[in-house]
Amino acid sequence: LSFQVRPSEVFGLLGPNGAGKTTTVNLLTGMLRRDAGEIRVLGYDPQTQARQVRQRIGYVPQETNVYLDLSAV
Predict the structure, then answer these.
(1) 20 CB contacts (<8 Å, ≥6 apart)?
(2) Domain count, the chain
(3) Residue 9 belongs to what domain range?
């Protein structure tokens, strides 16, 4: 997979179930380690510089049920 998003562009990743969208996003955000190849996000390597990547990108998941078991008063 190879793609480039230029400054000021908005990028959406679309595809059928099982196409690898979640895997791609997890690789781009550093949540998943790559086996081979190179990934750069704004010049940063998500595998070794995940914090810098996450500070500079936005991600909107389909499901937002991360903390369903938590409550607050």
Answers:
(1) 1
(2) 1
(3) 1-73
